[in-house]
Amino acid sequence: MMLFLQQWFGELLKLFARQRTYIGFGAFVALEILILLLIKKFGMGPIQKAIVGSGQSFEYYFSALTVASTIMGFAIFLLGALFLSLVAGDIVAKEGEDGHMRLLLARPVSRFRLLLLKYLTCTGYAFLLVQFFAWTSFFLGLILRGWGGGYFAIVPEVSVVAFYDWGPGLARYALSSLYLGVSMTVISSIAFFLSCFRIKPAAATIGALTYVLVDFIMRNSGFMENYQHLLVTKHMAAWGRILAENIDWPLVWRGYAVILAVNITLFTLGYAVFESRDLKS
Q1: Which of 73, 130, 250, 279 is deepest in the core (most CB within 10 A)?
Q2: Structure confidence at residue 1 as a pLDDT band (50, 70, 90)
Q3: What is the tally of structural domains in the chain?
Q4: Which residues are listed as membrane-spanning (predicted)?
Q5: Would you call 151 helix, strand, or coil by DSSP?
């Protein structure tokens, strides 16, 4: 077990030694600052109308938590999908392209173990990137509004609207960010699966991004109204139910059971593809 953890740590070091790993972090910070400046200049717009329309005090609920949640709602899915696909699509395909796989497999390590280490690395990156975005948004929200106030949570995808005081709101925000991090591992799993084929890293990245965006568009087009259970973005949105005042746990666990099944299936299929490849030629 200790050797496995050391090898995983080595994979993480290798991942964070690449410049492209940090592009996502930099892009998120730049976007957060831009949105924060726009909020400061133009206000909260539709969020303000929703709070006032619900008969609540905008001044009380215009807090760091509401600002952070709004920033995340704007950007996490599209930008997250882009950068998770970029990193996970690269993790196997790039080393295969460079010929590093032959060197790695020359060590006494199985293909399954090598692939499992890389899969855990890219899913760990997905979770870390979401946490980074959630808490830097919160930190910038603190700069704008300071500590305290209420929390107005709105997730239209799952019809959740809720109002919290500061303490319970902070706890619910932290919990939802953990669930969101798990949801986003689906995107890195798709890119990882494509990366196991003998293709260019860019092709794996574009393929994963295309699949996720098509799934997202079909979900919002209305044409799949009766078949939304077949769309992965439908189940990814289960994290939003954590923000409801009364959490519907059966629906949450059903969504995450599907996410777990999709992740395991993609890893298994990726391993089957990788195991069948001739890495010597």
Answers
A1: 130
A2: confident
A3: 1
A4: 21-40, 60-93, 114-135, 173-194, 201-218, 253-274
A5: strand
